[in-house]
Write a structure and sequence with these properties.
heterodimer; A: about 350 residues; 12-stranded antiparallel beta barrel; two-stranded antiparallel sheet; globular; B: about 120 residues; mainly beta; 1 helix
């Protein structure tokens, strides 16, 4: 979990988020919401009790890192704080959009976990006033129904919801909710034949789902003060196929499973990867070209946290013309707090 | 502002706290080395992990190319270094051997893996 869908902004067909640009003081709200998330986690802490831990991102000998741009298939105890994504969009003659996110995932049972996320968006247009505000609150649940240690494989299903009306008008957060059922998978190539052993560190994780808005369209009316003319705009909200995958090469796996290359630190803990985060509108007259980004980057995974950074490269003009950056600091709560919030609440740990 | 300071302090705590904790145990290095080649039969397979290991709940097994276990089944941790496990080997002939390990770190996280080494003629 804890990936930010960097392609989403481009595919929703939203009008300029600056259309109602009003500069709000959101710092206090930001702190309150973050505090709420922390209290949520520590409330769960009080309930945490179990026997043995297995934890994050493992299938057999394979450690899968948390990916930045596409959601990973694991149910885990994780905290991404923060994920920062910045890119210049084409809105209003060029707008620098920066998203600062926090995401928390908590295992309820070893196979089922819940997730909660929030994003502060800062918009700096080339002309006009800056705006910032929170996006809608995001909640989710994920159930891991297949795991093969021998084949380093895992499959899970999840349901996410962006709760409409909980975000700020200043950034045009949707007034309607969007449900997103999805299927997630991960597969390590450790079972390749020995002749291809240097390909064994390769792994792929991916996701395919549909974002289903609860409102098919929204209508906005603007009045010209001088002519008193009314301009009615109807914005369609199509269902959107969200799909993506991450292709990664684990130096950790290479060193410990295939061949000790005597690589020095921190190279021996690197996982170079490239992520593909795509969206395809499906209906309501918006069936059009797929938009998305290709994000090459690298993750360094330590004992208790990982750090990742990726370039965000639009795949076509419909997506954008500028390259952005996404970076993330991600904590493994199961390693940091193995006796409290790092354990599943019920059912022990497997 | 005080709340902001608390949140940054929390992040800092998360980063600094690990100095006191245990975590998932990864293979750090081994003797014979992962994927390595040696020219005589080693007396033991030794694996250094990134964490202190609960040896009673851990195992190292060595198999030959036919899948037969060839180690002496006496896996134990080093007295002075509890992140080092070793299992003794009889005198082995040339061939490729597979080491399979499964360990539990001090905080009960379980990890496993395997690797091969070759004894050259």
């Amino acid at each position: 979990m804890c990936a930010r869908h960097v392609a989403f902004l481009f595919a929703t067909g939203e009008p300029s988020r600056l259309g109602a640009a009003v500069s709000h003081h959101t710092g206090g709200i930001f702190i309150k919401r973050l505090s709420l998330l922390f209290w949520f986690v520590f409330a769960l802490c009080g309930l945490g009790a179990a026997s043995r831990a297995f934890g994050h991102g493992f299938a057999g000998a394979r450690f899968f890192p948390a990916t930045l741009s596409t959601d990973d298939p694991f149910v885990a105890d994780e905290l991404s704080l923060p994920t920062i994504n910045t890119i210049r969009t084409t809105d209003d003659g060029g707008t620098r959009e920066t998203d600062i996110s926090v995401d928390i995932a908590k295992r309820i049972t070893p196979q089922f976990g819940i997730e909660i996320g929030e994003t502060l968006t800062v918009l700096n247009p080339h002309e006009g006033r800056a705006a910032n505000g929170f996006g809608n609150l995001e909640l989710g649940g994920k159930y891991q129904f297949l795991k093969s240690d021998a084949h380093e494989a895992i499959v899970s299903v999840g349901l996410g919801v962006e709760i409409g009306g909980t975000g700020s008008n200043s950034i045009d957060a949707d007034s309607f909710s969007t449900w997103s059922p999805a299927i997630f998978f991960g597969k390590g190539f450790g079972d390749l034949p020995e002749a291809l052993r240097f390909l064994k560190p390769i792994a792929i994780t991916g996701v395919a789902g549909i974002a289903i808005p609860t409102s098919a369209s929204t209508r906005s009316i603007t009045v010209n003060d001088q002519t008193d003319e009314r301009d009615i705009k109807i914005e369609q909200h199509p269902d959107v196929l969200q799909w993506g995958f991450a292709l990664e090469y684990s130096v950790i796996y290479l060193q410990s499973q295939v061949q000790d290359m005597h690589l020095p630190s921190p190279i021996d803990r690197l996982i170079p990867l490239v992520e593909f985060a795509m969206e395809t509108p499906l209906n309501r007259g918006a069936g059009g070209p797929t938009t998305g980004t290709i994000n090459p980057g690298v993750i360094w995974a330590g004992k208790y946290l990982q750090v990742g950074v990726e370039a965000v490269i639009p795949i076509n003009e419909h997506t954008g013309n500028n390259v952005g950056v996404i970076a993330q600091l991600h904590f493994f709560l199961d390693d940091l707090f193995p006796n409290t919030i790092g354990r599943s609440l019920f059912g022990g740990n497997k | 502002m005080n709340s902001l300071c608390r949140i940054f302090s929390f992040c800092l705590l998360l980063i600094l706290l690990p100095a006191q904790l245990s975590a998932h145990a990864f293979l750090q290095h081994s003797d014979p080395p992962v994927g390595g080649k040696v020219h005589s039969s080693p007396a033991a397979v030794r694996i250094w992990f990134t964490e202190v290991i609960e040896s009673a709940s851990s195992s190292i097994q060595v198999f030959d190319a036919m899948g037969k276990q060839v180690d002496k089944k006496d896996m134990h941790s080093d007295r002075s270094n509890h992140s080092l496990l070793e299992v003794s080997l009889p005198r082995l002939g040339p061939g490729i051997y597979k080491v399979v390990w499964r360990v539990m770190s001090a905080d009960t996280h379980v990890t496993n893996g395997d690797f091969k080494f070759q004894i050259a003629p």
